[in-house]
């Protein structure tokens, strides 16, 4: 199976990438939509770092810049997919029917398989499984009550996940960030040749914030 991986650089898409490799599939390219604005579909902060992830994984990377508008976003993705000889594409969708359905329709239109291997995985099992298997990831954005600026850049290891789980229970947010409560950036994974060591500054407006990485 020859596949493209749709990656934002976060924990879920990187886990889906690893899943494809564990199945022995050929990852022909990693594709990223870099959103200049906002999007209900795709992660916004730190997505350009996927270029470095792809480099340490030894896989080609391609991208398009979009403004997040529904319609042109998947048109840009379709253009990238059509440029490569693949049988399907892999994404890290967890529970968003909106995201999964749009990707499946795109796959149908292009004659490609759409794979969502993380679909409805138990949240804490998913998160702790990543840590147990050597993933290192940090919070790259936060946007909900209970998560303050101190979480930006924090490594979500088992101690971090303990604290996150307690806050999620107290403030009633999705512990896996599926509702947009936080975003992540993967610094190391089992298939990276070396860990990433980016430098960043913290952008915080009093209620929400993100990491800015050059």
What is the CATH domain class? Answer: Alpha Beta
User: Low-confidence parts lasting 5 or more residues at pLDDT below 50?
Assistant: none
Second CATH tier, the architecture: 3-Layer(aba) Sandwich
Q: What is the C-alpha radius of gyration, as a whole number of Å?
A: 16 Å
The topology string of helices and strands comes to EHEHEHEHEHEHEEE
Named CATH topology: Rossmann fold
Helix content: 25-40%
The amount of beta strand, in percent, is 15-25%
Tally of separate helices: 6
Main sheet attributes: strand count, strand direction, barrel closure: 5 strands, parallel
Q: What can you see in these coordinates?
A:
This protein has 214 residues and is an alpha/beta fold. The chain has a single domain, classed as Rossmann fold (3-Layer(aba) Sandwich). 32% of the residues lie in helices and 24% in strands. The strands form two sheets. The chain has a five-stranded parallel beta sheet, with helices on both faces. The longest helix has 14 residues, at 97-110. It starts with a strand and ends with a strand. The mean pLDDT is 96.
Sum up the structure in keywords.
6 helices, 32% helix, 214 residues, 9 strands, Rossmann fold, four-stranded antiparallel sheet
